[in-house]
Specification:
With about 550 residues, the protein is of the alpha/beta class. The chain has 20 helices and 23 strands. It has 2 domains: about 250 residues, Rossmann fold, CATH 3.40.50.150; about 220 residues, Adenine-n6-DNA-methyltransferase TaqI, Chain A, domain 2 (Alpha-Beta Complex), CATH 3.90.220. The longest helix has 19 residues. The protein is globular and about 75 Å long. The chain starts with 7 loop residues before the first helix and ends with a helix.
Length: about 550
Amino acid sequence: MKLRKNSSEQKLRGAYYTPAPLAEAIVGLFASQDIDTVLEPSCGDGVFLDSLNELNLLDKVRRVTAVEIEPEEAQKVRSRYSGFDQMEIYAEDFFDYYYRVLGKERFDLILGNPPYIRFQYLKESQREMLSEILTSHGMKANKLINAWVAFLVACVQLLSENGKIAFVIPAEILQVAYAEDLRLYLANNLAKITLITFEQLVFPDIEQEVVVFIGEKGKGEKGIRIIEMNNIEDFARLELEQNGFQKLRHVKEKWIKYFVTPDEMSLIQEIRKDTRFAKFSEYGLINVGITTGNNGYFSVTEEITEKYGLADVTFPLIGKSSHAHGIYFTQKDWGINRETGKRARLISFPDIPFEDYPDGHKKYVLLGEKNSEHEGYKCSIRERWYIVPSVWVPEAFFTRRNNLYPKFVLNRCGAVSTDSMHRMKFNEGIIPENILLAYYNSISFAFTEICGRSYGGGVLEVLPGEMGNVLLPKVERVDPKLREKLLSYIDFVVRNGEDIEVALDVVDEELLVKKLGIDPEICRKCREIWKKLQRRRLRRK
């Protein structure tokens, strides 16, 4: 999770205690249901137990079990509920507890906020148990996996025949690649899934978006729904048994698609089958930008360039997405960036003996070592820390993190980019201007929102593999004069900060409708899908 301020102990423990109003709202969803046994696998300060007590539910259940890895926290909760004979508090790692009771214990309701601990911060024994839990249920375990994933998988295994689980988890479950296996597992093992999202951040100490995941076992047709709330107060209008479920498909695809209606989803599937479209990846190599290991050192201003005589070992640079002004990056654009003091050059020292470097270059390298610039991980593992690998000039760039919409930009001045931009090299025979034009339309914009991932702050992030899955209309035989006219107009709109929709209107009509024969209604519906998903993430600023 992204912390508002540095808190390494909290990061290592993965403990982000659930606000009491949120815990009470979640517990309240199950107040009227017939529940015999309850499990809280990551007890923490006992907020979910407190909510059960506040709503007078403790006396209605036969057994409540809570597990907490921190002995002091477990003892506090144990002391607070010492008068409740039906409550058991275990001070142990939940993974240990899981293996101890697997096949022996089942629970009607499992509640909690599992720890958000990255794989590298787990103890070796925890890594082994996490991996075993995942692989034993047909899932891959890798270094990207977070502890909450294994918690969720294990707890689903501990549910009774008609049991229910309610977890507060990162919104990553909707969209990240490392949760693909998890999404398939949940689709296969649960009858109904409800995901509750919030426009406002519900945790005071973290900036990352969270969701309330509610899974239900049982028989009948499988379904999934996403309920968008403004804040916790909106729980008052939610009834768990109400309808509104879409058909749950047993696929690894991102659940972000369920933010659109079933009809909109059907349209998306039809477009995927339409031979008038092709994936971005079919047109060339899509790669991350240059990973320097220290952008602050290797990207430099004109002042630094002149001081150390670095001009002959630098490339023109797009260091940030804001440095790309239009849909072309030209010599003029680069000149503006240099004149306004931006870090507009990337240093690429040659692989020759250090003693052969000019004095100015030697001084800059030694300055970096004096300031410990070489101690970062990426730099430290290189044979020569100051030689940046994989420096090549792409034909186009695609912005990685975006606000209103991504920019796809042709490279007209031999520039390179840091990893804030993706870089693309087109296949032989491809006309780059055709692909540039093919991106700026309502259908491709809709697929970008679907394929990418949203974060708190209104950010849309698109990784290379996700960019590759965006569909583009095939425009191989577009008239060069029309292409130039349309591209010039798009460039004008982007450079002047005008509403991109005016450009999409023109491209939709001239290219999609007139040239490819696409129904205008399809363009309109895709525009609505794009705007719906865009508005959703922008509300989370």
